Amino acid sequence: MFVLISAGIAPGIALLSYFYLRDQYEAEPIGMVIRSFIFGALLVFPVMVIQYAFIEEGLIVTAFSEAFLLSGLLEEFLKWFILFYTVYQHAHFNEHYDGIVYAVATSLGFASIENIFYLLASGIDDAIGRALLPVSSHALYGVVMGYYFGRGKFIENKSKVKFLIFSLIVPVLLHGTYDYILIKITQKWFYVMIPFMIFLWWLGLRKVKLANKRQTELLMKNNQIPTSEQ
Question: Which positions, given as ranges, span the membrane (predicted)?
């Protein structure tokens, strides 16, 4: 069991460490990051209960509703809700990139516990595939969510609400698309999934770069770093 639990949580820790270390300026307090990870892990239990109830009652009857509502909207909304009420107004959320760190931590907390349950039920043979697909995809939804959280936090006009809406809607659409591919395409699904995952990684790494760039521009504007460091 120890091996299964380790295999289940290791990809999440590795991905969280990767995105945590991509912060070019002030690193976030480890305690805050761990707290977000734990909050995300705890979300697995209400999500499982709600999904089970909807399925048992026959309220979800199409691939679209299962992918975009029962998985995409439910899971991403709960992550968004946790971030908004535990991180968004916190004093440590003081850089554009911070939104990515906390959103990735929350997403990977969720993905890690979900992954452990899956491996306990199915065995360790699927560990590599799980790490490459569902765990990494959750991390990338978190990157996108956190990027727009950062934009909403630091933009100085009426676009705050717009970016907070984007921080929910875009991850829901990405998550729903991922699940829809798995549900709808029963044979040779990897021919669609591999390009989609490449797109997700491209999008996520682009958001990482943009978040750091925006923080650099903000610091330059406030004369906190030399122009040559841009």
Answer: 6-21, 33-55, 67-88, 100-121, 127-149, 161-183, 189-205
